[in-house]
Please model this.
Amino acid sequence: MSRSDRHSSPWAVGLWLIAGVAILLAVALWALGKPGKDPVGNAVLTAQVALQDNMDFLRAGPTDGAPDWEAASMVLHDADAEHGASLIEQHGCGSCHVIPGVSRAHGTVGPSLAGFRDRAYVAGVLPNRPGDLVGWLMNPTVHAPNTAMPDLGITEAQGRDMAAYLYTLQGG
Ligand code: HEC
Model:
């Protein structure tokens, strides 16, 4: 054994001691901890919960808890559906249309507006979107020159309120 080996050995022993104490402390902490305060178990539990959350997220279908953009796209901001219903009544739309929730709306000249929200097109000529629907209500003959639905002088504000009401009509 050389001189230098003998010199380094106290350091090595010291390091082993520190490592040993650290391991003992960790084991003691784990073993002496109450079940609820068991640091190792807690770490495992935390990891399990985090993993479970990720699994739930991955397993969820694309619509689970996700924003419904389809529904959001049918919202007319600052429009008053209730006012729209009374405007629809005042303008006599019901003389040509069946309109659920509007009194005396039993007309059969135009299509029933029941479940209108679920329809793909407005009068078969415009995509059923808020802006296009309002455009139709304001000037049906611009979009379908031969339509039996007359231009009733509806303003944009009135059209927006009416559209808001029509989009409350869902399902068959
Ligand atoms: C004189 C009869 C008449 C009146 C009054 C009338 N409509 Fe119409 N409406 C029609 C006809 C007919 C159609 C079908 C248009 C077409 O396909 O060209 C129609 C189509 C529509 C559509 C599209 C329906 C669909 O399924 O695509 C909406 C919405 C609508 N009308 C709302 C109204 C509202 C709201 C009023 C009142 C402001 C009104 N209508 C007044 C006759 C009328």
About this structure: The beta strands are 121-122, 126-127. The first strand starts at residue 121 and ends at 122.
